[in-house]
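Good morning C.,

I know you're traveling, so I'll keep this short. The sequence:
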Amino acid sequence: MKKKYILIILLSLALLLTACGRKSSQFKTLQQIQKEQGIPVKVKTVELETFTQELTYNASMGGKEESNGQSLVSEVVNSVNAKVGDRVSAGQIIVTFPRNTPSAQYEQALTAYNAAKTAYERMRNLYANGAISRQELDNVETQYKVAEANLNASDKMINVRAPISGIITNISVSPGDRSYPGQNLFTVSTTNGYKAKLMVADRDAMKVKVGTPAIATWENITLNGRVSKISLALDPYQKAVPVEVTFPSNGQRISFGSTAQIRLQYLIKPNCIVVNREYVVNENDKQYVWINQNNHAIKREITTGLDNQLQYEVTSGLEPGEQLIVEGISLLTDNALIKVIE
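The tokens, ready to paste straight into the viewer:
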């Protein structure tokens, strides 16, 4: 009986081991699956493209035309009659100073103007009636015009007006602040486009010229423009060349003062085969890409030309219509079976 139990146990163990062996044989390694079905990859059909070389900067976007209202006196600001974002017209009073500002002498100029105007009007009536000569009228008219000019000059000192029509994009003073002569009090920008000011290194400024295409990107908005002005001298503080780039708005709305990425495309070469750097394998001072050929990975040596840090221009080794492998490259071996994933 004891021997019978031992035999039953041995048979059970044998059946269990057989079952485990069958179960384990149903599982395959990833390498086995890839060998049988192919390494999963993604491909891109090679096409002729435009290769570009660019200089990239970050810059504030201002109005295509901007003008500042400046203080002509050293005085406390009396009032500010607009806020950032307001649309204003040329000649509209934005900042005022007291009428009794000593350097403006506004009250004296106003009194002199009123007296000269009254005298001129009286003399003009006398001349019309033949009571005085033309010379006498001309003398009074001259005094009147001088008084008018003095009043206008005084008025400009205490009433700072918008120099152009547009939108207030900056106000740098508040009521009660003391200004100084030459200080920018506010900025008005037109709404017919944008302008960015760049500081370009001297070695790069040689690559740029007026008319060089530029692309501004801010969030999901892209504007195409051109270099409109290049300074002939280095900025003495930043040791770089000031460059202005302008962009039409084309119905897009970027907030003035926003920082956008500006790309200056100083070289544009059409009809090139262009490959991203991450698709290129460097080995022993040679460059290779992987090509899909009849569902097999083929390692292909290429020759590159221009380089823009992100892409290469391929001058030989690739032809339009071939399938360039762009994902799964690290798993490949030469002539390995591959499976293209859409």
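Safe travels,
E.
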